[in-house]
Amino acid sequence: MNEAATQDEIKRATGNRALGSTTARWFGTAAIAAIGMTLGGYLLGDGLLRAKEAERSVTVRGLAERNVTADLATWTISYSASSENLSEAQAKVRRDTEAIEAFFKDLGFPEDALQPTGANVSSRTNRGITSYTVRQRLALRSDDIERAQKAVARQFDLVGRGVFLEEGSGMSYTFTGLNGIKPEMVAEATRDARASAQQFAEDSGAGVGAIKDATQGYFSIEARDGDGGGWGVSDSPYKKVRVVTTVNFSLN
Fold first, then answer.
1. Most Cβ neighbours (<10 Å): which of 43, 77, 130, 147?
2. Where are the alpha helices (DSSP H) in 134-232?
């Protein structure tokens, strides 16, 4: 009897220890799961908060404009002569060429400023009579803008010398120094964009942070006074350079 009781007690003790071990493992697993859920919830909440903060931004445009003066003048002069005799038409074009060269020489342009750029001959027959038209093109290229303007102002002197100027004979002014002012203008446009973002941020109770991304627009060069030239209209050497940038700022 005593030996049987002892064995029963041993079994009960062993079972209690096994039950206690199982219970401990269960509570341990539950505790780890609870900690994991708490930590996961914190990280998820913190991540959502950071994501929400990352979405706080404003996209604005900045403008920069600068008045410049052209540094290159080009003038393509087209003229022609017609005759039923090809030799006569050619001779007239040669005389016109000499008159044009003398015109620019009198204005003080160097000889190499004026270069031939093309010539062609066409014929037309009407009622058995053939007439010939000889066309010639000369191009003036100069960085002396003031002298070029004087030439344009006196272009009808060529007409007075018997030169028939065809449509398309006009002076064009070009600004070639764009690369030299690009960095400053981009910086100016960015500052203008930040000023706009600052105004928006103040109205919404926020502050302007760093640039998240930005896009530079195209640079445009147009006549300052809106006169772009064309047939019968003289181009202007006074230009306006313009660029617009799109900037996305973060908000604090």
1. 77
2. 145-153, 156-160, 178-203
pTM beyond 0.85, yes or no: no
CA distances from 109 to 59, 71, 112 (A): 52, 16, 8
Higher pLDDT, 185 or 171: 185
Cα torsion angle, 222, 224, 227, 229, sign? negative
Structural element, H or E, at residue 114? strand 114-126
In 3-state terms, what secondary structure has residue 129? strand
Residue 6 is predicted with a pLDDT of: 52
Q: What is the per-residue pLDDT across 15-31, written as a single tens digit (0 to 9) for each?
A: 455 445 555 555 555 55
Taking only the tens place, the pLDDT of each residue in 67-87 is: 999 999 999 999 999 999 999
Distance, in Å, from the CA atom of 126 to the CA atom of 86, rounded to the nearest integer, reads 16
Each residue of 98-136: b (16+ CB within 10 Å) or e?
ebbeebbeebebeeebbeeeeeeeeeeeeeeeeebbbbb
Q: Tell me how far apart the alpha carbons of residues 245 and 183 are, in angstroms, rounded to a whole number.
A: 12
Name the DSSP letter for residue 113: G
C-alpha span between 192 and 249 (Å, rounded): 13
Residue 168's region, left for phi above 0, alpha for psi from -120 to 50, else beta, is left
Three-class SS state of 163: coil
* Residues 140/149, Cβ–Cβ less than 8 Å: no
